[in-house]
């Protein structure tokens, strides 16, 4: 139930209805009563501006005319003119403190919108002393009291906030809002409204500056329908967005997906059930691996008006959406979810949790059991008595984008960037950006990309490099070790390791993966085969790489390989030779135990005799300590 909306209707004019039925008003001035009656008639005819003017005339005839002031206050309230509404409610209370108890609730609502939190607290506490308050009004009053108390504390402990307009290359005299950036911050996509039509625009970062924004695509933008509330995958190849009232939609607003094709985008596709329904689905946010979609819906089974839900992509498509539960959703409205690439920090907007008025921004963190914790308000002055929403973060998590129309920008809503306070930041995230090419021709290749969490042996990213440019991009969360495998039919696979244990902020990983064709003599360094120091027992983190090797041998069933072990030059020659041979043998035995025929495998130890780097630094010695395989028969 939309409690806040219902209360606006229920509380709008109860005192006036009573006043209309009175045989006497608080004023005996006939002209004042005449203007008041006309104002009330204007209200009945929805002529609100005329009603305001006639109420003002009634008050000018009799400044102590309570009913006229209350009507004027309610009219200002209906038109969201908070400050004058507060002034008129205050006059009503000063003229007759017990005229109508509902005045205290309505006055407090306007005072919170106008950042008058101390006065709102007093009026709410007064209102809650009255007997026989309806359960609905009682709940709403207590909710606003919590807002007032929170706001008083928040304003005495402000958080750092220095918003920076990102410039005329993106912001114009029109409205620009809902910005989202790719993980490398190379592309920013946002919504621009021109003549009440919403379309997507993009800007590229060149030499540290945003270039002039351009129309995103005729494939996605339309002249007839609004496109907005978008989320872009970390690599910039998939765009999830909201389309409303489209002929191919299921409800008023649906979620669509479009895939980038070279320099343009393919035709958007409706996600269909179970994500989209005949109701309202909007504001998507896709997680780092592109397999969990967070979105907003008013579908049945929620906690309030608009709730945040999620759907996970499986073998049969998007799964049945799950509500994020009462630690996120309230009986009011939760909107604008943004799941950070760390996959465990969620930012969203809500008017249900204690805040400074209207909608505030919050952050919730996932615990080790996968449960969302109760959210934290981002604080003042990030949040204000107005509406805050549409926050997104850089992958690094140190900066946030948002839009505002009250910071003296270039016109309407502008897009801003600010440094996020440390305590509000997500887990540290970096990214790996790569290009896949043929080792001989240097031509870009479309290849399968897989990144695996070595502790759990589960993939955290699976996709393909671009078929035209060969590029890919994936985010990595700190505190873990990852294996990267790149494979393509007819080629040896590529192996890389990224250790983010005790990771501190540094440059992202940029690689060029050169794939070698399956030819005799070609080698692959298995960078995710691990042994303890001076030992030859395979560590459990090696299983993912070994599974990839088994898969390769299964696909290429006539191939025979040599498994080789190598060491650095530390220690004596014979010890290194023995250790390298035992390590190669351990890999051989593992493969045989998994069904690979022994006749397809040989193993050798080369000790320190075949270094690929100098042995003068620890980093180079680590490169020399390796396991390889080489094609000996195709």
Automatic annotation (TrEMBL):
<feature type="repeat" description="TPR">
    <location>
        <begin position="66"/>
        <end position="99"/>
    </location>
</feature>
<keyword id="KW-0732">Signal</keyword>
<dbReference type="Pfam" id="PF07676">
    <property type="entry name" value="PD40"/>
</dbReference>
<dbReference type="InterPro" id="IPR011659">
    <property type="entry name" value="WD40"/>
</dbReference>
<feature type="domain" description="OmpA-like">
    <location>
        <begin position="520"/>
        <end position="634"/>
    </location>
</feature>
<dbReference type="InterPro" id="IPR006665">
    <property type="entry name" value="OmpA-like"/>
</dbReference>
<dbReference type="InterPro" id="IPR011042">
    <property type="entry name" value="6-blade_b-propeller_TolB-like"/>
</dbReference>
<protein>
    <submittedName>
        <fullName>OmpA family protein</fullName>
    </submittedName>
</protein>
<keyword id="KW-0998">Cell outer membrane</keyword>
<dbReference type="InterPro" id="IPR019734">
    <property type="entry name" value="TPR_rpt"/>
</dbReference>
<dbReference type="InterPro" id="IPR036737">
    <property type="entry name" value="OmpA-like_sf"/>
</dbReference>
<keyword id="KW-0802">TPR repeat</keyword>
<dbReference type="Pfam" id="PF00691">
    <property type="entry name" value="OmpA"/>
</dbReference>
<feature type="signal peptide">
    <location>
        <begin position="1"/>
        <end position="19"/>
    </location>
</feature>
<dbReference type="InterPro" id="IPR050330">
    <property type="entry name" value="Bact_OuterMem_StrucFunc"/>
</dbReference>
<keyword id="KW-0472">Membrane</keyword>
<dbReference type="InterPro" id="IPR011990">
    <property type="entry name" value="TPR-like_helical_dom_sf"/>
</dbReference>
<dbReference type="GO" id="GO:0009279">
    <property type="term" value="C:cell outer membrane"/>
</dbReference>
<dbReference type="InterPro" id="IPR006664">
    <property type="entry name" value="OMP_bac"/>
</dbReference>
């Amino acid at each position: 139930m939309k409690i806040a909306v219902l209360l606006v209707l229920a509380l709008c004019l109860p005192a006036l209805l009573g006043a209309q039925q009175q045989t006497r008003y608080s004023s005996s001035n006939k002209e004042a009563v005449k203007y008041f009656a006309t104002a009330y008639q204007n209200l009945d005819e929805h002529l609100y501006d005329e009603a305001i003017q006639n109420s003002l005339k009634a008050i000018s005839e009799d400044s102590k005319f309570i009913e006229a002031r209350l009507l004027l206050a309610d009219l200002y309230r209906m038109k969201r003119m908070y400050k004058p509404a507060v002034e008129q409610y205050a006059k009503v209370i000063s003229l007759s403190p017990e005229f109508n108890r509902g005045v205290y609730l309505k006055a407090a609502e306007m005072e919170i919108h106008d950042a008058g939190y101390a006065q709102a607290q007093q009026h709410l506490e007064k209102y809650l002393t009255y007997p026989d308050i309806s359960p609905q009004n009682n709940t709403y009053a207590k909710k606003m009291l919590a807002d007032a108390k929170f706001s008083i504390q928040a304003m005495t402990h402000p958080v750092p906030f220095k918003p920076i307009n990102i410039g005329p290359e993106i912001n114009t005299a029109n409205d620009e809002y809902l910005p989202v950036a790719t993980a490398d911050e190379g592309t920013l996509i946002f919504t621009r409204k021109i003549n009440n039509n919403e379309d997507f625009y993009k800007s590229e970062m060149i030499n540290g500056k945003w270039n002039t924004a351009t129309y995103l695509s005729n494939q996605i933008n339309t002249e007839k329908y609004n496109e907005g509330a978008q989320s872009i995958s970390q690599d910039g190849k998939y765009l999830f967005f909201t389309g409303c009232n489209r002929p191919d939609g299921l409800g008023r607003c649906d979620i669509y997906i479009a895939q980038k094709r070279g320099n343009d985008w393919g035709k958007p596709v409706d996600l269909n059930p179970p994500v989209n329904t005949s109701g309202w689905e909007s504001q998507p946010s896709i997680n780092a691996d592109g397999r969990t979609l967070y979105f907003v819906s008013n579908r049945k089974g929620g906690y309030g008006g608009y709730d945040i839900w999620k759907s996970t992509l499986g073998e049969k498509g998007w799964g049945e959406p799950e509500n994020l539960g009462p630690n996120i959703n309230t009986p009011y409205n939760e909107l604008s979810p943004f799941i950070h690439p760390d996959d465990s920090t969620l930012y969203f907007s809500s008017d249900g949790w204690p805040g400074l008025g209207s909608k505030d921004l919050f952050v919730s963190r996932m615990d080790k059991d996968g449960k969302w914790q109760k959210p934290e308000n981002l604080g003042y002055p990030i949040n204000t008595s107005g509406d805050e929403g549409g926050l997104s973060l850089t992958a690094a998590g140190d900066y946030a984008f948002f839009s505002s129309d009250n910071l003296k920008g270039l016109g309407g809503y502008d897009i801003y960037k600010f440094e996020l306070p440390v305590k509000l930041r997500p887990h540290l995230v970096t990214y790996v950006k790569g290009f896949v090419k043929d080792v001989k021709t240097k031509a870009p290749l479309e290849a399968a990309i897989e990144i695996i969490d070595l502790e759990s042996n589960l993939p955290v990213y699976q996709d393909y490099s671009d078929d035209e440019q060969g590029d890919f991009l994936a985010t990595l969360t700190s505190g873990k070790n990852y294996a990267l495998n790149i494979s393509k039919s007819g080629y040896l696979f590529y192996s890389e390791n990224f250790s983010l244990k005790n990771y501190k902020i540094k440059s992202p990983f940029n690689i060029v993966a050169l794939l070698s064709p399956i030819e005799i003599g070609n080698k692959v360094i298995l960078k995710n085969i691990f042994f303890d120091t001076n030992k030859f027992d395979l560590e459990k983190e090696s299983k993912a790489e070994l599974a990839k090797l088994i898969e390769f041998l299964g696909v290429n069933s006539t191939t025979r390989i040599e498994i080789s072990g190598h060491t650095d030059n530390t220690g004596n020659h014979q010890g290194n030779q023995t250790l390298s041979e035992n390590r190669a043998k351990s890999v051989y035995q593992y493969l045989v135990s998994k069904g690979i025929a022994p006749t397809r495998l040989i193993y050798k130890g080369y000790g320190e005799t075949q270094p690929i780097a100098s042995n003068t630094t620890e980093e180079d010695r680590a490169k020399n300590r390796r396991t390889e395989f080489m094609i000996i028969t195709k």
